[in-house]
Amino acid sequence: MTKLMNALGFQAGWWACVGGVRHNLEAEAIIFCLILIGIHLRVSKFPLQDIKLGIFALLIGVLVDSSLQHFSIIRFYGWALGPLSPFWDWTLWVMFALTLNASLDFLKNQSHITTPILGLVFGPLTYFAGAQLGAAALNDSPVKIFSLAAVWMIALPLLVMAAEQVSHTSKDNTC
Question: What pLDDT score does 130 carry?
Answer without folding.
Answer: 96
